[in-house]
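User: My collaborator sent over this chain with a note saying "see what the structure looks like." That's all I know about it. Can you take a look?
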Amino acid sequence: MELLFDLPPWATTRDRGWATYAAPDHSLRFVVAPLVERPLADVRQLLSHALPAGARVDVLAESTGRARVGWAMTTATVRIVDEAGEVERRYVAIYQVLWMVGAIMVMGRAVELERQRDLIERVLPSGRPRLRSVEPACVAEWFELEAA
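Assistant: Without extra context I'll predict from the sequence alone. Here is the result:
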């Protein structure tokens, strides 16, 4: 299973379940985290992904809502700072999908994220699960899951 997004056809790299879609000039990157079971979800690990050495994460804003297809979605704006100041800005969207949690981050300089706001606002709510996997599943089990 994985999360799918309406992403531009940019160059893509994959590393240990993470997928990075980079703009041709590398000024903006969409990073899709792998789906994990809720008890294994670690927001700190997500926010610190590809964190420069000596930098820290400051959360600027958070909100909750729903993705276009109805899954619960929490968004956050964070900035990555070091001793010299802001290094990078990130928009993060975390999706609650059945018993799983998935996420996407948009990474770049604040001015670039503002310039690409229309694209970002189209991509973040487009998150939807692809529920097929190699593992067998029984739909009846979904009705036995505990609410998070």
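A starting point for your reply to your collaborator: The CA atoms of residues 4 and 128 lie 5 Å apart.
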